[in-house]
Amino acid sequence: MPTISSTQVDGVTTLPPADPATISVQVVDGVLHLTFGISQGQEGQAGPPGEVTTAALDVAISGSSNNSNAVAALGEMADSCYHQPQMQGLINKMDELINALRRG
Q1: What rounded mean pLDDT belongs to the chain?
Q2: C-alpha–C-alpha distance, residues 84 and 90, integer Å
Q3: b/e burial code for range 22-42 (CB count within 10 A of at least 16 → b)
């Protein structure tokens, strides 16, 4: 068995998807020479899993304010002084809006 003093990769070739990977090994003057053939693999999807298209994102964003459409306007006029029922109405309406805007 020859003594190997170093290793060298002489080349890497991309093979067609159906071809099996290959390796060529040769020892010359103590140098291990390697040549690889790597299969390209099958054609994948347009993007990584979980990615969305710009068009799909635009559609999703365009309907995102619909959650608040069911919240009616408060329809109150401000009193010149503190009025407890009016303040409670404002608090209730804010709670309704917050709950409507929550996602999932």
Answers
A1: 80
A2: 10
A3: eeeeeeeeeeeeeeeeeeeee
